[in-house]
Amino acid sequence: MLYQLTSIDPKDFSRNCTLPGENETKVNLEELKTSVLYSGPVDPSEWVGLRKSSPLLVYLRNNLLMLAILAFEVTIYRHQEYYRCRNNLTAPVTKTIFHDITRAHLDDGLVNCVKYFINYFFYKFGLETCFLLSVNVIGQRMDFYAMIHAFWLIAVLYRRRRKAIAEIWPKYCCFLTCIITFQYFLCIGIPPAPCKDYPWRSGNANFNSNIIKWLYFPDFIVRPNPVFLVYDFMLLLCASLQRQTFEDENKAAVRIMAGDNVEICMNLDAASFSQHNPVPDFIHCRSYLDMYKVIIFSYLFWFVLTIIFITGTTRISIFCMGYLVACFYFLLFGGDLLLKPIRSILRYWDWLIAYNVFVITMKNILSIGACGYIESLIQKSCWVIQAFSLACTVKGYHIPTSNPDCKLPSGEAGIIWDSICFAFLLLQRRVFMSYYFLHVVADIKASQILASR
């Protein structure tokens, strides 16, 4: 607000930068005129975060919103603390909406089941939510840092077991914190007041604007998109909550209320274990909740195979061939596969998840060609574009118009269907790891025995 005083005039300390010569840069004149350095007087206070604004309320609305939210949060917590002290109440073990709903009420009916998942959805499915947000970051960005996110996703999924993932999770949270901070400094960049451009804009550099944008380099012409940091922050937020969940899983009071997240034994034989199953049998549909359980645990497997088939047929490329092979394999041997021990089922299913993540990673790596070197690929290697369905799916890149001899497969690019497939593969893996699934396997086994008799 002090900067809005009429006595402060930005023209007094602004500076005009001179255009570089033809030998000093490879950037054309029209592109140079869009640069922060040469589009007008350079105000050094804008780099700090100060600028003249009218009306002032629009300029200050985010700060006022932050102040209002913080005041609201303090008011709520102080009121809760005062109310509990006045009525001699203790704070609940878990911060939930329905305090009287525990794991024991999960199978009591559809209403109690909904209440339970309102309370403990992230406790049960927070890890899968983090994986989906990681894939969302990759799909929204498709740049160098998205590739780093993909490698970290592979490293975390490689651990397979929940307990092993919990050991590496603090390092993953540290990585997200560091990479967001580093990218924020890249978005700020160097001050434009000295009129010094970045080295990748010099005459000796071989970087074009598309490559600079893909590498997420600071630049005065193609500035890094700060909206990407919002996706990274949402991933960091959920990863931090998941780290707290891993810590809560080791508390006895939380396990009594929300249940444990201990994974099922890998060597378990479902048919022989059904009579000792700790969860009630739902096969005979005694309630509406049992009907939903039958749909999820009995028929979700075949629905996921349908999603895999759609993923492989909506886009025509080399990567889609793997989805079709996997789909037909599980359609051929899926019935027998469900009767095998859990370890055997997960071995095949984890290979399918690994291939899905591999495809997502490769599409992200190949995006440097689809977004950065697309002009040279159209002229020299059109077969690469058609084989891998290369097309830039992120806005802001300069993409040439399609050549009649080499059409860009814009409608077949992207990882939307790969992400949908990834979500259903993770959901089906949780079904395989559930005690409810053992009732389904026992019912299939009993049906086969009855049919043979």
From TrEMBL:
Gene designation per UniProt: PIEZO2
Entries under Pfam families matching the protein: Piezo_TM25-28
Spans through the membrane: 56-77, 120-138, 144-160, 172-193, 291-310, 316-339, 351-370
Annotated protein name in UniProt: Piezo type mechanosensitive ion channel component 2
Piezo TM25-28 domain residues: 270-453
PANTHER family: PIEZO-TYPE MECHANOSENSITIVE ION CHANNEL COMPONENT, PIEZO-TYPE MECHANOSENSITIVE ION CHANNEL HOMOLOG
GO MF annotations, alphabetized: mechanosensitive monoatomic ion channel activity
InterPro entries recorded: Piezo, Piezo_TM25-28
Coiled-coil blocks: none
Keywords of the record: Membrane, Transmembrane, Transmembrane helix
Keyword DNA repair found: no
A Gene Ontology cellular-component term: membrane
